[in-house]
Structures are given as structure tokens and as C-alpha cells.
């Protein structure tokens, strides 16, 4: 059986005597009894954990009130940075797809783009990436507009084949990743 020091018993007794006064002070700060009770409990827990820093013979009530007040202001500062989101509406809007898929997709695209014939790669980069019109790209390449359009069409078809793109759903994250990010799995029974 553990031996309880007399100082610890005195500290505990003196601390418990102040609980009604602590609670009244906490209610005056919080305005709600349930929040005040939580604040008093946090104060008692902190005081008990730091009892070695209390100097015996000094005013324990003032020491506890200081802890309570500091804890209250710490919680207020913290709550000012937190957002109440119990139904996860805000969190779901902030979720993003993992970046590794985009990095891998870009790497695959670059490799496929480099495997295109030079004339097709040049045409698709001029129009698709650099933003030139067909007319401007044709002028740069010293060829007809129809030739540029044909090169771009062939380049797009070849890229889709090399990247195994069958439709719009092949762009972006895969179905499982999209479901996780959008919270579909959260609503499904397991």
C-alpha cells in the first residue's frame, strides 16, 4: 500500500476546499455551468500535476485562481483558431486529392509526349501548351492551317493510346481515391 505524504494530504484537502469558489469564478468567466465544470476540472488536473511548484504556506486559493484564469484564456485563444464543424461540411470542402497521382500522371504524359514524332509534338505544344492559335502555329511551322490541325489531331489520338485514356473519367484521381476524398466510404456500412 502506498504511503501518502502528509504534505500531499494537506495539499489535496486545501485544494478541494477551493472547488466551490473556483467553480463560481469559472461560471463568471464562461457563462455556462458545463464549460465552467470542465474548466475547474482542467485546473485541478494541472494543479495536481504541478503541485511541487506550489510553495507551502502561500495562498493556494490565489494559486488555483491564477491557473484557472490562465487555462480559460488559453482555451479562448485556442477556440479562436478552431472552427466548429460537427457535420464535416467545412472539412469536406478542404479535402484535396493526393498529389502523387498528379506527379505520376505528369511523368507519364511527358514520356508519351517525348515519344511523339517531332512535327506532332511541336504542333501540340504550340497550340495546347503555349496558347498559340492554329493560324499562328501554322505560321511558326511554315505550313498550312490544315496541316497543323491534322498534326494535333494525330498527336492527341496517339497520346490517348499511349496513356490508355478512354474517356473523361480517366482524368484525375482513380475511383477509390475520389470516393475517399469525397466521403463516399464514410456513409457506407462496413
Automatic annotation (TrEMBL):
It holds the Pfam family Sigma70_r2. CDD domains: Sigma70_r4. Keywords: DNA-binding, Sigma factor, Transcription, Transcription regulation. It comes from the Bacteria. One of its GO terms (biological process) is DNA-templated transcription initiation. GO terms for molecular function: DNA binding; sigma factor activity. Residues 19-81 form the RNA polymerase sigma-70 region domain. The keyword Isomerase does not apply. Residues 108-159 form the RNA polymerase sigma factor 70 region 4 type domain. The keyword Phosphoprotein does not apply. Belongs to the sigma-70 factor family. ECF subfamily. This is RNA polymerase sigma factor.
Amino acid at each position: 500500500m502506498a504511503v501518502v505524504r502528509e504534505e500531499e494530504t494537506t495539499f489535496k484537502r486545501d485544494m478541494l476546499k477551493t472547488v466551490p469558489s473556483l467553480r463560481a469564478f469559472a461560471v463568471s468567466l464562461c457563462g455556462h455551468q458545463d464549460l465552467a465544470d470542465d474548466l475547474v476540472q482542467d485546473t485541478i488536473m494541472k494543479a495536481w500535476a504541478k503541485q511541487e511548484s506550489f510553495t507551502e504556506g502561500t495562498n493556494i486559493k490565489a494559486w488555483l485562481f491564477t491557473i484557472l484564469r490562465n487555462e480559460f484564456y488559453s482555451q479562448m485563444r485556442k477556440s479562436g483558431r478552431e472552427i466548429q464543424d460537427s457535420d464535416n461540411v467545412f472539412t469536406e470542402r478542404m479535402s484535396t486529392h493526393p498529389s502523387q497521382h498528379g506527379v505520376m500522371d505528369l511523368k507519364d504524359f511527358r514520356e508519351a509526349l517525348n515519344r511523339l514524332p517531332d512535327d506532332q509534338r511541336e504542333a501540340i505544344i504550340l497550340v495546347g501548351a503555349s496558347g498559340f492559335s492554329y493560324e499562328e502555329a501554322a505560321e511558326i511551322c511554315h505550313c498550312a492551317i490544315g496541316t497543323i490541325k491534322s498534326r494535333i489531331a494525330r498527336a492527341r489520338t496517339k497520346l490517348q493510346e499511349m496513356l490508355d485514356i478512354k474517356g473523361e473519367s480517366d482524368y484525375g484521381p482513380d475511383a477509390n481515391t475520389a470516393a475517399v476524398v469525397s466521403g463516399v466510404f464514410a456513409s457506407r456500412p462496413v
